[in-house]
Amino acid sequence: MGKLQALRNFNAFPHAEDHLLQKTFSGAIVSIVGLTIMVTLFVHELKYYLTTYTVHQMSVDLKRGDTLPIHINMTFPALPCEVLSVDAIDMSGKHEVDLDTNIWKLRLNREGHIIGTEYLSDLVEKEHSTHEHDHGDDHHEDSSQKKQEHTFNSDAEKMIKNVKHAMANSEGCRVYGVLDVQRVAGNFHLSVHGLNIFVAQQIFEGSSHVNVSHIIHDLSFGPKYPGIHNPLDGTTRILHDASGTFKYYIKIVPTEYRYLSKEVLPTNQFSVTEYFLPIRETDRSWPAVYFLYDLSPITVTIREERRSFLHFITRLCAVLGGTFALTGMLDRWMYIIIESVSKSKTRSVLR
């Protein structure tokens, strides 16, 4: 019995008898407020525990031989689909479009509604003599030499008539789809370079009249992961009584996103700078929208993680225990203040 009595002396939570406890109205208010605070903090801590966070790591990119997917979704409000072409060229000067390339062109009316579609399935690989990114004039001349002779046949005249009619009706074109290119530096561009140079002259009456105003709805180099920001999404460039070439210099950063479920999503982030080159009447080059890209040798790994359960319990005990102790102190202070005020009133009445 002596040992049990000694053990009771270590009790940190002694209990008073019920008739010695006094329940007050102020104590009830403090208890309700404290309980509300504790429930709110518990919900907050639970959400904080269930929410994942990301950890970024960098390493050397070791990928070789993979392809680079380019997702395009752009609108050209001032160019009909018949004159618009999509080209992709890598550092070797090779015009490369894989067989599984999937590009659609949507004809748009003045209000932006779709009035027709075209699927680009006849793209083939072509060799170009230049290895430079900026080759607008040479590329146009080379491609024009591979066309038919510099004479207008009935098909060319019909095309010119159709395009002029479309331009008179303010027809536009929306280009969307995926280009799979080699994983090397290169560029892809949207322009009128696919036209015979004499046909282009008949349609536009000079390169300075080609309006490459455009809206970039979506441009990405792989699937999207939570929190990704593609800086060109929503970009609008409208020209009024002017013409020129837009160049977007893109630095691609290979990225791996690792979900909490251990699933790995390979994709790419990128940064971009922009340059505009006005076209003069005497220039031989034709306006275009260029996207010149290069790949970073560093890959970024983004990993989802969740806080440990012990961390959650520790924070929960600290928050709830602190709130309980604070409300207890507040209740004691309020009781003392109320008792002091009531005693002073009683004394004043007796006097």
From TrEMBL:
It is a multi-pass membrane protein. It is found in: Membrane. InterPro entries: Erv, Erv_C, Erv_N. Residues 156-331 form the Endoplasmic reticulum vesicle transporter C-terminal domain. The keyword Transcription does not apply. The keyword Oxidoreductase does not apply. Its main location: membrane. Belongs to the ERGIC family. This is Endoplasmic reticulum-Golgi intermediate compartment protein 3. It comes from Ananas comosus (Pineapple).
